[in-house]
Amino acid sequence: MEPPLGVTLLLILMITSSAQSCTCVTNKWTVCDQDASGNCTCKLVGSDHTVNCSTLTSKCLLMKAEMTAVKLSFRPRVKLLDGGIYNPECEDSGIFKARQCDEAGTCWCVNTAGIRRTGKGDKSLICNELIRTNWVDIELKHKETSHYFEALDVAEALTHLFENRYKLQPKYIAAVKYDSPFIQIHLKQNKRCDVDIVDVAYYLEKDVKGDSVFHSDSTLRVSVNGKDLAIENIRVYYVDEKPPVFSMKQLLGDISAVVAMVILPAGFAIILVIILCQRRKYRKIKMERMRETEEPILQSF
Ligand SMILES: *[C@@H]1O[C@H](CO)[C@@H](O)[C@H](O)[C@H]1NC(C)=O
Ligand SMILES: *[C@@H]1O[C@H](CO)[C@@H](O)[C@H](O)[C@H]1NC(C)=O
Q1: What is the model's pLDDT at position 124?
Q2: What sections of the chain are H helices per DSSP?
Q3: Is the distance from the beta carbon of residue 18 to the nearest atom of ligand 2 less than 6 Å?
Q4: What's the confidence (pLDDT) of residue 119?
Q5: pLDDT of amino acid 274
Q6: Atom 5 of ligand 1: nearest residue by CA position
Q7: What is the model's pTM?
Q8: Ligand 1 geometric centre to CA of 225 (Å)
Q9: What is the mean pLDDT of each run of 10 residues along the chain (301 residues)?
Q10: N or C: which end of the chain has fewer CB within 10 A?
């Protein structure tokens, strides 16, 4: 039996109005539902995890949702693989589990950014603790422009952006350096707070790549003294509070896949400096993000 036209119309009206009022501003990978009292509850695509839409979603949960979305064919697969994303296991709190494994049973330990920081092993591999990434370096490049920007103004605009768009308290922005067209931002945070620097970096990365996690038409806009600063490139480097556990052989044999950086033991620091110098030269020529496609690693030089 068909429902009367009035009921159908009312239903359509209710569905559209609830769809409008009930969305998750900070996470488009969600399905939201409004209850009778009008409360909006949003759950991550493909899981039962409830998302707090007034703050950022953790990187682990985002990666998980994106992988689910790929499986459901919400988006082209090629693009995701290019991003070096894997399907992570997250704790209830949303942080990465210290040990991650792939379907083939290969396991490795990650930091709070979800990046591999040890050699690989089998299922017997033990990761005692999740090591904190307490330092994130972001390098941005903006499009050529005829405008001249003062370093101080750029720093101010970006601090404003981080505070408003990514809800990061300015005290975690250790430095912003500007040397046109490159911008370096150092984020430092020793303990996880309501918004983690790693999550902020991930949201920003998505924004710059034109694949914003924010809902609907919330595109990234940075304006310095009323003039557009169009960011076209981003690189993110992660530094953990403890050195990664790669053997020198692993490290030297595969410099192109160095994962997490730590500046602590002398031997390691020297190698790191060499890598950094080479990288810097290379960057001058071409600032382009290169990533591994097969390995569950997010960082490469
Ligand atoms: C809905 O929101 C109100 C006010 O914020 C709150 O008191 C109430 O407990 C919520 N109801 C549910 C079912 O969460
Ligand atoms: C959601 O996040 C905001 C901002 O961090 C916080 O104040 C609020 O308590 C959170 N709500 C829940 C239900 O956790």
Answers
A1: 93
A2: 5-21, 59-71, 77-82, 151-164, 197-208, 248-253, 266-285
A3: no
A4: 86
A5: 42
A6: 39
A7: 0.77
A8: 42
A9: 46 44 89 90 89 94 86 51 69 94 90 90 92 94 93 95 95 95 95 91 93 83 92 92 76 47 44 46 39 35 31
A10: N
Query: Measured between alpha carbons, how far is 82 from 60 in angstroms, rounded to an integer?
Result: 18
Q: What's the pLDDT score for residue 285?
A: 36
Closest atom of ligand 2 to 52 CA is 1
DSSP assignment string, 58-127? PHHHHHHHHHHHHHTTSS-HHHHHHTT-----B-TTSPBPSEEE-TTS-EEEBBTT--B-B--B-TT---
Domain spans in the chain, listed from the N-terminal domain onward: 5-97, 133-240
Question: What does residue 6 show for φ and ψ, rounded to 5 degrees?
Answer: -60, -45
Provide the pLDDT for residue 138.
Answer: 95
> What is residue 11's predicted lDDT score, i.e. its pLDDT?
43
Q: List Cβ<8 Å contacts ≥24 apart for 6-14.
A: none
Residue identified by tokens 């496609």 is: 293
Contact between residue 225 and residue 265 where contact means Cβ atoms under 8 Å apart: no
Q: Which numeric CATH code is attached to 133-240?
A: 3.30.70
Which three-class secondary structure state does DSSP give residue 220?
Answer: coil
Determine which residue's CA is closest to atom 2 belonging to ligand 1: 39
Ligand 1 nearest-atom number relative to CA 41:
14
CA 42 – ligand 1 centroid, Å: 14
